[in-house]
Design goal:
This protein is an alpha+beta fold. It has one domain (22-179): Lipocalin (Beta Barrel). It has helices at 2-19, 73-83, and strands at 22-34, 41-53, 58-64, 91-98, 108-120, 123-136, 139-149, 168-179. The protein has an 8-stranded antiparallel beta barrel with strand order 1-2-3-4-5-6-7-8.
C-alpha cells in the first residue's frame, strides 16, 4: 500500500511539473507604427493570445486582425477592408522556437531569438525575432520590437498611397504569461 501511495504521489508531482512547463497569456499587447508623409498610422491590439513551453522552448502567438484599434475609425475600416482583408484572413499567427540555451525557469532577464513562421494576410514566412524574456515572481514577460515589410505578406498598397504609407511597419509586442493550470 505504501508503494502504491508513493507511485501515485510521484505521478501527481510529475503531472504537476509538466503542466507548469506551459505558460499562457491573454494579456498580449501588439502595436504597430508606420511613419507617413501626410499622417502617421498607429494601431494597438490587446486581444491576442500566446503560449510558451519552457521545456521544449516552443512559442505561439495569435491575434485577431479586427482587434487592432485606430484613433480614426476610417483608418481602421480601410485597414481591415482594403489592406488586410480581415474577412478572408482573420488572424496573424507566430509559431516558433527559442534558439538560445537559456534556463527561463529561473528568475532573470534573457535575450532570446525565436526562429519560426509568421503568418499575416494568409502568407506564411520564415522569420527570426529577437526579444527579451523576463521571469519575475512566477510570471514570464516578453518584449520584442521588429520591422515588418508589407511586401513580405503581399499586402497591397494602391499606387496613389505609396508615397503616404511606409513599406515597412514597426511592430512592438509585450505579453505577460502565467503558468497554465
Amino acid at each position: 500500500m505504501t508503494k502504491v501511495k508513493l507511485i501515485i504521489g510521484l505521478l501527481f508531482c510529475a503531472m504537476q511539473a509538466f503542466s507548469q512547463s506551459v505558460y499562457v497569456s491573454d494579456k498580449v499587447n501588439i502595436s504597430f507604427f508606420s511613419e507617413a508623409r501626410i499622417e502617421n498610422i498607429e494601431a494597438t491590439s490587446t486581444k491576442g493570445n500566446a503560449a510558451i513551453n519552457i521545456v521544449t522552448k516552443d512559442v505561439a502567438f495569435k491575434v485577431p486582425i479586427t482587434s487592432f484599434s485606430f484613433a480614426k475609425k476610417l483608418m481602421e475600416e480601410h485597414f481591415n477592408e482594403n489592406y488586410m482583408e480581415s474577412d478572408k484572413f482573420p488572424y496573424a499567427t507566430l509559431k516558433g522556437k527559442i534558439l538560445e540555451n537559456v534556463d527561463i525557469t529561473k528568475e532573470g532577464k534573457y535575450n532570446v531569438t525565436v526562429d519560426g513562421t509568421l503568418e499575416v494576410h494568409g502568407i506564411t514566412k520564415a522569420k527570426k525575432f529577437t526579444g527579451v524574456i523576463e521571469n519575475k515572481a512566477g510570471k514570464l514577460y516578453i518584449d520584442s520590437e521588429f520591422m515588418l515589410p508589407v511586401a513580405d505578406h503581399e499586402i497591397k498598397i494602391p499606387n496613389d498611397k505609396l508615397s503616404n504609407i511606409s513599406q515597412t511597419i514597426k511592430v512592438n509586442v509585450h505579453a505577460e504569461f502565467i503558468p497554465k493550470k
